[in-house]
Request: fold
Amino acid sequence: MKVKDNEQNRGSGGMPKRATLAQARHADPRIPNYANPDEAASRSRIRRPGQRWPGFEEVSRLAQIVVLEHGGYANPVIKRGQMHLRSRMGSRKTGRQQVVEGRGHRDLTMWNEVYPQCLDYNAHPFRIHGQVLDQRFVYFPDHIRLMRSGEVELIEVKRSPADLDKPGYRDKLGAVAEIVRRGGWNFRILYHDDIAGPRWRMRNVEGLYARRFMLVSRAEQDVVTSFVMRGAETTWADLRDRIAPDDPRRGNAVIENAIALGRIDVDLDERFTDATILRPLAPMPHNDQIRL
Reply:
């Protein structure tokens, strides 16, 4: 089925009268709105084909997702990005190697690796084959992540709004936003400034990122587990003193390890101090919801 521009859902200036969550997440009014209010969002739309799909002529399917095998024949890194920073990052959260390109994408991957509200993520997870305005396209999303709220976000990372100057590219992003909306996901565009955030975010992220594979003793694990099982928030200083009464640096390191592993929630946008509030997070299974 072709994705067509829904003029009835547009207000003055081309903006949608009733923006969906996916469209509200980025403020660039130049991206067209292809939302069809008659098409309800459902994750059951995303499923493996029972037999080989003949092509775009089959109107029961809007798009095709091809899962990439990193390091295999389907290389996820776009060849035209020779000027971009390239990185391969080992992830403890996902148990997979993450292939990223660009500084913003690297910072987003580090953020999701230690962000307690992010349960699972993947960089360059797949490619999407679709069609918009009688033109077929192939789209490589930069990132996908699953939040503790159950929300799945498909993310496009850009340096600035100037990266969206090409009309054809904006049409493609508008079509992708509608494709993933129908699949029950949310489409987001994050600029470098959105990822870097306030002054302390990346400083905290980098510190937590370095603690992911830290060795923690059984006694230290027991203190953190007791805090999580009790379910009551406390201050950084209180938990640190319970973990290592005679070694504040060791206590700080153990807390940072627990945050990086998603056992404790904290505001990453604020400076970590003795008065910082720590909130326990109960384990939450996610059943590989973004692993197609």
About this structure: Residues 1-25 have pLDDT under 50 and may be disordered.
